[in-house]
Predict the 3D structure of the following.
Amino acid sequence: IKIKITNIDIPVAFASAFEGEIIRRGDMQVEFDGSRVDCAELVQTVDASEIEDHKITVVGPEADEMELGSKNNIAYVVKVAGKNMQSDFEPVIERKFHNYINCIEGVYHTGQRDMQRIRISKDAFNAGFRIKHIGEVLYASVKNEFDAVVDKCEVVIYTDPAECTRIRHEVAIPTFDKRDDRLKSLTDESVDVYYSCILCQAFSPSHVCVVTPERLGLCGAVSWLDAKATNELDPNGPCQVITKERPIDERIGEYEDVNEAVQKFSQGALQDVSLYSIMEKPMTSCGCFECICGIEPFSNGVVITNREYAGMTPLGMTFPELASMTGGGVQTPGFMGHGKHFIGSKKFMKAEGGIERIVWMPKELKETVAERVNQTAKELYGIDNFIDMVGDETIATDPEELVAFLTEKNHPALSMDPMM
Ligand code: SF4
Ligand code: ZN
């Protein structure tokens, strides 16, 4: 990661020291919440003639026209132009917004795409910080970090609710869908190389993600296309090409080339990893997994839980408890961190039988992944509506009750080979 000194014209400080800052409800002036109202963050490639460099526009009310403590809409479109710019770079730039906005003193950001959440503290507001300054930060940071591809940059920030709804539904979501569709047509077999990602080594020094078309990074934010774009943008950066010419074991997805790469990028801490097994040489986890999957011995299956779910799982552990034994960059057979999108993949735990093993997920996660999971189960096993066979917290969090439910549903895991 290259960090240049920037002089950004905002009334508060801007430094990575503020990245972990949390703003409590009582300390906040206003917030924006994509999970409640229409929001979006988007990079759009346009022709150089269509934009004016460093122009920042706010369409709708400014922070001082919003009620204290209120929840508001926000959608920012960062338009970029450059002769080396490619649309594949858009999500890579977008992903950095989280870091940029978090570096502002008194401003907090989580999430991405149309699910971001931002809080502006009273202190920052009283110091003069306004929504237009988010534009200044995005402008300066994008120009600073992506100068190889971005020649001109203009930021439009919508806070008008109707405009945010329009941007989210008519511009942002179709763009995100198009990106996801591009990935859908790619399989691990159809590409010549995979990518490593070591972005998380700052926190988890031996952790290496191996990113393939059918297995995105465990943070859920780095797809194979993103890793490829990151590598093109910065050939010496966090994502390196891994060849896949020397398979060792196709069943668990083990390759000599991948092992060599993992050995090198983990500085020898890791010897070998598989791409498709949770039991044999599973991939390591840093700490930012969207989900954790762990074996559930009573049902012979696996339980998945996600970061947003605060409740108990049939494993007798909550997400934070599972996270403390799964993270840290060490291999923990029987447990793995992964992205949400991986749940619908044909490569999910392929070595152990695939998604047929999933016996429990939090209800909300089930709803999020239902369509893809059902489609994959139909294609792989001819099962209709597989998601209805999977338990959730409204059905059971006790393993015995779960098994009773699974038996009633005739869940396939009950009759599969033991996992251990
Ligand atoms: Fe990269 Fe993996 Fe960290 Fe995501 S979790 S940023 S893919 S190392
Ligand atoms: Zn991480």
